[in-house]
Amino acid sequence: MAVSPSSSAQQARQVLADRLADLCRDAGLTGREIAERCGWHPSKSSRIMNGRTPPSADDIQAWCRACGAENQMADLIASLRTAEGMWIGWRRMERTGLKQAQEARSPLFERTHRFRSYSSWLVPGLIQTYGYTEAVLRAVQRRRVEVDDVGEAVTARMERQRVLYEGGRQFAFLIEESVLRNGLCGADALIGQLGHLLTVGSLPNVSLGVVPMRPDRSRMPVEGFWIFDAEQVNVELVSGYLTITQPSEVGAYADTFAELAELAVYGASARALITGAMDSLG
């Protein structure tokens, strides 16, 4: 399990480590004795109990057998999987292709009622056109994914967009002005994407803000992120996909969203920036 920059993931790892240490104490064993029973170097059990080295599923099974706590195996391995899921490298997440990675997010979108999305790089996926999405996912596939299922992945993302129109959900999108002028899809497709932003921005359940480019900002751009209700944040980083559930961290992203929202323009002013970008493209 990769070490995550999120304290949510670190806390989950420490909780698991503490549970394993408790099993050891309850069995009347020392870390050295656990290592001997498992056939490990003594330092390994110490690193696991202190949360410095995450255990594997095999390690947990061996630990439980050594402590006579086989009935705890399934629950502890489930905790391991939860901690691992908070930080997923792109290679692991996309090893079977992009379609599955898209479909895996659908349940979260289905159960969320309030969405907040900030993007400093690209138009958010939920309001992308087919052509824009195809260009973005094709670039991802060429860079890091061996399986070519881009067509199916685009279809999966388009299907997910139905949440915009059902279930009484609320959406707040913030994008940097630079997003309106940069793209991977070429001028014609980008013009179509900008026209789609005008359409989506007119929906009664959608707030669309554009943060103008200016030399005297009070808050610089940050990495793109999504806030789902007030329960979870997802961040796409260069190295992987981060899930945050720690309330204090979710709150920090909510505060950041609010600060960036104060810098944005809306309504006619946002439409003027969008149409200006369209005009500059031809």
What does this structure look like?
Strand 5 (225-228) and strand 6 (232-236) form a beta hairpin. A seven-stranded mixed beta sheet has the order 1-7-6-5-2-3-4. The chain has helices spanning 7-26, 31-38, 42-49, 57-66, 73-85, 90-93, 98-104, 106-111, 130-144, 150-160, 187-200, 247-263, 267-280, and strands spanning 87-89, 114-119, 170-176, 206-211, 225-228, 232-236, 240-244. It is α/β, with parallel strands linked by helices and 282 residues long. It is elongated and about 75 Å long. It starts with 6 loop residues before the first helix and ends with a helix. It has two domains: 7-85, lambda repressor-like DNA-binding domains (434 Repressor (Amino-terminal Domain)); 89-280, 2-Layer Sandwich (Endonuclease, Chain A).
> Per the principal axes of the C-alpha atoms, what is the gross shape?
elongated
CATH T-level topology of the largest domain? Endonuclease, Chain A
Quote the beta fraction: 5-15%
In terms of structural class, how would the helical and strand content be classed? alpha/beta
Radius of gyration of CA atoms, rounded to a whole number? 23 Å
The average pLDDT score comes to: 92
CATH class of the largest domain: Alpha Beta
Termini gap: 48 Å
Q: How are the strands of the biggest sheet laid out side by side?
A: 1-7-6-5-2-3-4
Q: What's the architecture of the largest domain, going by CATH?
A: 2-Layer Sandwich
What is the number of domains?
2
GO molecular function: DNA binding
Domain HTH cro/C1-type: 19-74
Protein name: XRE family transcriptional regulator
Pfam family, one: HTH_31
